[in-house]
Amino acid sequence: MELRASEWIIVAYFAYLAGAAAVAPRVGPGQRRRVIGTAIAVVTVVLAIAALDPPAMLWRDWMPHVYIVVGYRLPALLVSGTRHAFERRLMTLDRHWLVTTIGARAPRPLIELLELAYLCCYPIVPVGFACLYFGGFSAESDRFWTAVLVAVFGCYGMLPWLPTRPPRAIEISPARSSELMRPVNLRVLDLASHQLNTFPSGHAAASLATALAVGAHLPLAGVLLALLAVAIAIGSVVGRYHYAADALAGAALALLGFVISRFV
Description:
The chain has 13 helices and no strands. Helix 1 packs parallel to helix 9 (141-156), helix 7 (108-119) packs across helix 12 (219-238) and helix 9 (141-156) runs antiparallel to helix 11 (202-215). The chain has a single domain, classed as Vanadium-containing Chloroperoxidase, domain 1 (Up-down Bundle). It has helices at 5-23, 29-51, 57-62, 64-73, 84-96, 99-105, 108-119, 124-137, 141-156, 181-192, 202-215, 219-238, 244-261.
């Protein structure tokens, strides 16, 4: 059995979460056991799938979608409060960069488009992978996942140490009204989110890493995905789902993940 580079990243990340659960302060024993147990289960599944015969290759290629979802939710169990001082620094940067002013003055059609773009942060990874996989580059699965997993796990893994609330939850003045798409986004977040802000932004990181990984082999698709990734990052900030520093740090992690994937 030989693990892929992306599978080593998965094993390392969940081992890190298990270690974090053992030392994280003010975390209940039930939460610790849940994090450690889930981490062990994920690592076991990764090793079991890697040990199967080649007919399991389809599972091996597509299972990282599941690991990302689990890897997103698990660190939230290690959070017992948020860092208000860090939130204030992030908010100060937003004001300094005129983010709130730009969002308040943007025309409503643009706000709607940015909210729609933000909603696309959920399907962009599977859509990008499908483009690569069915576009004749299924052999590049490991490179793709290396880029994306370095980016997203780098974001999610910081949550226990830098937990913050999203700006929409603490600002007195709400974001510019969006009558169509914002209620949809808020409903999706109510159902799927742990209601904590990740610094760096996992949405910005995953979107840009996907665009870069796909664009390395399918330039047109990569350009389209990159434009969408930029719109997702802007929409996340203007809609006050993330701070501007979140998006910039997420983009930096995406670039790092893509560079690392080139060595696979």
